Structure formats: C-alpha cells, structure tokens
Amino acid sequence: MANQIWRLLDLGALDPIDTQIIYDAVSIARGRNVVPDTMIFCYPVKPLVCIGYHQELEKEVDIDVCRQLGVPVVRRILGGGAVYLDNNQLFYQIIASIKNPMLPPVVEDAFRFFLQGPVETYRSLGVPAVYRPINDIIVGGRKISGNGATTTVYGVFVLTGNIILDFNYEMMVKILKAPSEKFRDKMFKSLQEWVTTLRRELGYLVPVKEVKSTLEEAFEKTLGVSLQKGTLTSEENGLLQELRKRYLSNEWLFMPEHRHPNLIETRAVKVVAGISVAEAAYKSRGGLIRVTMEMVESKIKDILISGDFSFYPPDALPKLEQILAGTVLDRTVVTDKVRNFYITHNVQSPGTEPDDFSTVILMAAEEGRAR
Questions:
Q1: How far is CA 283 from CA 23, 68, 341, 342, in A?
Q2: pTM here?
Q3: Quick check: is 255 in a domain?
Q4: Contact 359/282 with Cβ under 8 angstroms?
Q5: In terms of domains, do 212 and 272 share one?
Q6: What is the CATH number of the domain that holds 290?
Q7: In this structure, what CATH number is given to the domain that contains residue 104?
Q8: Consecutive 10-residue runs of the chain (371 residues): their mean pLDDT?
Q9: Which residue range forms the structural domain that includes residue 20?
C-alpha cells in the first residue's frame, strides 16, 4: 500500500502567539477539507508563556512578572499545564482528520503512535529516549518532551509537542505562581531534577536545522507517510489573522473565570448560613483538577472546574459544569452524574477518571461545610 502524502509546513521562527494560533487555524481549514493532513515545524522568535485550555490564568501564572519581562501569555486549545517556551524548543504540530484510518480512536493510543517519531529523533541524535504514558518522552527518568492533544469540533485531531534543545529553568520558575520564594527555590530544584534537554544530555547545542531534518525523517519512517513541503493557503492566513483577535482578548485569556465571575469574587468564604463558596484541588494521574463551588444547603449552585488535565472534546467541560448545577452533594449521585456525562458526551480524559472529578467535588463540599 502506498504511503499517505501529508503536507509539511516548515514555518521557522514565528511570532510567539502565532505558534499557538497556527495549528488552530490549520485545523479549521482541515475540517473544511480545503487542505490535507498536515505537519508543522516552528519555534517562537521570542519567548512566551502558554497555559492549558482548562487552566485559570491567575492561579497558574505570575502575570505581573510576565508584564515586567515583556513575555506574552497565550491560552492554547490543548489541555495541560503552564509552560515557558522559547526558540530553544522546536515545535511539531500534527493536524489530521479523525477519518484518517491510521489515527487510533483512543487519545492515549494516539499519543503512543505519533510520539514514535520524536522518540526516534532523540535516539538518532544520540539520546536513549523512551515514551512514557500518557504523553511524555523521557530519558534517564527525566522529561525531555511535553505533548498535548485534542479533537476539535471540526472533526480534526491535533497533537503538539516539542524537541527541547535547551531550557531556561530560571525563567520557568519566575513566571509560575508560587506562594513564597522558598517554594520557588524548590520548584527550581525539582525542574532541574525532572526535566532535561538535548544540550544537557549531549554536552552541546544541536543545530535546529539538524533536529528538523532528523525529525522529518523519523516521522516519515514511523508513520509511514510522505511529507511534502508546502505553504499556508490564503484561507489559512486569513484564519490566522481572524483567530489572533480572539487569542489576544481577555475573554479568551480568562475564559474559565468569565464563565463564573461570581465564584471568582467570593472564593472560600461563607456567604450566609447554609450558603458557602469553597475550593479544592486533587491530583489525578492525568493532571491537577481544581474545583471552585458555591453550595446552597446540600446542593451545587454553581461550579467552576479547571486545571492542567486533558478533556476531550474540550468544549464539553462547561457542559459538565452546567449539568452539575443543582446536584445533591451525595457521593453516589455526583459519581453517577459524572459517569453518565462521560458516556453521553463520548468524553476522553487520559489519566483522569470520572471518579476523580467526583472526589474533588466532594472535597470542596467538605471544605465548604467546615467554614
């Protein structure tokens, strides 16, 4: 059987925010069936901070520090956590129709399949990397590549990740929210312990041109595709400009907060007898889940769910919040409601189970009752 032909967009250095808008624009064009399945290589010309789709900006990032440093902040359409990105990281972005027969239907399997290419790239460059579920590539127990994915409303699968040539540990801890300088010092040591780079493993900085050519060959080999260099279409360029307005808006940057403005204003306080607002956090295998919840007697009045977990389709999370409103805070009732939501909305959340959401909701309920 002949190899599939995919388009390769080698876009080089891009405006920082455009590195996150580009795969959104291409996914829309792919969903309209005006472009083929596509792979993008790019990197930011200047540093940026990128937060996950479900994260609360002010909970994760020190906005004042970012402003002082002149580093823009952007929300991506993928889950995961806040990261510092710069031109020492080469991004690969995969955009494919969900109808492509090579695409595994389960997101966790898709990570395993597509990350063969980056793993092979590291190995070809002399680093004995391996894939670690759910979405990491590691060497010697340290993470050397972070990856995220989603399925869009346009019927398109998107996966993005990075080849880390070098990493600015100090900048990463500067931009993250930390309760104290002592805690920030711990974060710095933890990052150095658990995140590595090509430069650290090999002792020198590999030229980005060499990394790109190696990555291209590795993807062709592991996916069984032929990558043919192409350019952005006029429609994609138009989408890029159109989406940029949204990505720069406060409505997008503070999306979870805008869904529940009253909750943000009255966190963790007892309003009147029988009414309280509280929050809780719980670490699942797939990431941190945060819940801020207003309760009236023993029922959920309003609830905000955020965090660095992955949740597909991403627009289903606000629907889960809506369905939970009015729910009695009983473990069996909450658990059944979340489980049924997963089934009726075909939700996938790699590493995070329906019962993880039930757990953190009941934790918040206990916190509220204690106040």
A1: 29, 31, 21, 19
A2: 0.94
A3: no
A4: yes
A5: no
A6: 3.30.390.50
A7: 3.30.930.10
A8: 88 98 98 98 98 96 96 97 98 98 95 98 98 96 96 95 98 94 94 97 98 98 98 98 97 94 64 74 96 92 96 93 97 97 96 97 87 60
A9: 4-249
